[in-house]
């Protein structure tokens, strides 16, 4: 059980927390000043202080193992930490990592070298999934201003100034963009106090002090990015200064279960997608996967393919208002976008369709064209349309449509002449739909509600929740009723919040909405992690969840993932919206 560390905020796998000293210490942190090291047992026995301080992190007596040590040796010499009522840290390797009932864990295998990027990432992941999720992880000896943001992104909480000091004393000047030998600098590119002298008077000791200052400044900046849920945005640019970081970052993306489990299904903050690596963001790949596996088209009208817009949601943009004047509810509009791929009109509000921003140049990379044409091809194969109207400009958009439909037997018509908003193009779009009847406002509202429910809970959930129902309210904040209110569409996420009536409709259905089992109490406002008896592994932060206990049935929104709910000893697991006493 973790007593002296608490996670207070999560941004994917990155998090903010606090060491619960008499004066709480926020993390991520540089921990040089609040460590007490009992020492290594390799040379001699070590004594634990009889009255350990509660304002320092006590490193328990240990035997550290270098990377590559045989498991039989690690098992033979591993030190089981004693149970002490003060903030403690245990020294571990990825092979010996487990719940040792300490507040922090120190990884011994990376203190001298990062090693191959894939092995490093695997070691961190193995360690993180083996120790309690509400414990701190300390990576000694390797933090620099350049690599710090990646380590925080991985979920590491504690660092030291060892590498910064040694680099400085050896004449290496550290910046977030890289490491620079002092002899190669003509002037000092920094204005911290230690850099206030001329370069000819700048000593290696000054360089060490500068490196510490820069490391602390970078930590403050990275902390702010995590707090604002934008660490990935920053990191996509930062890793490009270093080949090892780029390789590790891409390896982590290619083995994405660790990140996926920790990435919320929705949040209010947006993100930017400006690099090829953005295409591998969990928010994007999850959206694409759900479009192909959960969404189904309910309209009988033609498929109308249009380009996306910079303004979100698309329907509020100038270009899409012109498209609407020509379509007039006679076709099913699906927008083509990079990085998301394809966005049916019913899901324009749904995270992340209205939450991303990207570079708009009109130029598409071959990777973007191939990825999105494959998505569109799969979408067309899995949905039924009488014909396709492609209102897309020449270039990347048209290349995508042509690649996606080259093996399709569905008739297709291209309507753009030069530009999608030219009068001739818009008239062609109108003419292509001239014989198609309009669909009703109720069809549009109902199909949107059903599509969002499918996306959120599983294919077919929309039909179960919303069949003989009444829809009230505006497009952005819709409430849905039958005999009682079923759900409310949340405009900030484009997802539903269920009432107890709606939750009961899904309870015990084939959609298997995640149900968290709690202990013998009636939740008031929230469920804390210690009150969770069991939770499905499939729960992600932001999911709608049912809560079942001996005394109560409730519905709310997950704050933690399922594994974190079960393994944490503190923190809010679920925000409760409605509760029924049993």
Number of strands: 29
Strand order of the largest sheet: 25-29-28-27-24-26
How many domains, as an integer?
3
And the CATH topology of the largest domain? TIM Barrel
State the separation between the terminal residues, measured CA to CA. 31 Å
Helix content: 25-40%
Radius of gyration based on Cα positions: 28 Å
The overall pLDDT, averaged over residues, is: 93
**Treating each run of at least 4 consecutive H or I residues as one helix, how many helices?**
17
- Which descriptor suits the 3D outline? globular
Strand composition percent: 15-25%
What is the CATH level 1 assignment of the largest domain? Answer: Alpha Beta
| CATH homologous superfamily classification of the largest domain | Queuine tRNA-ribosyltransferase-like
Please give the largest β-sheet.
6 strands, mixed
CATH architecture of the largest domain: Alpha-Beta Barrel
Low-confidence stretches: none
Pairing-aware structural class of the strands and helices? alpha/beta
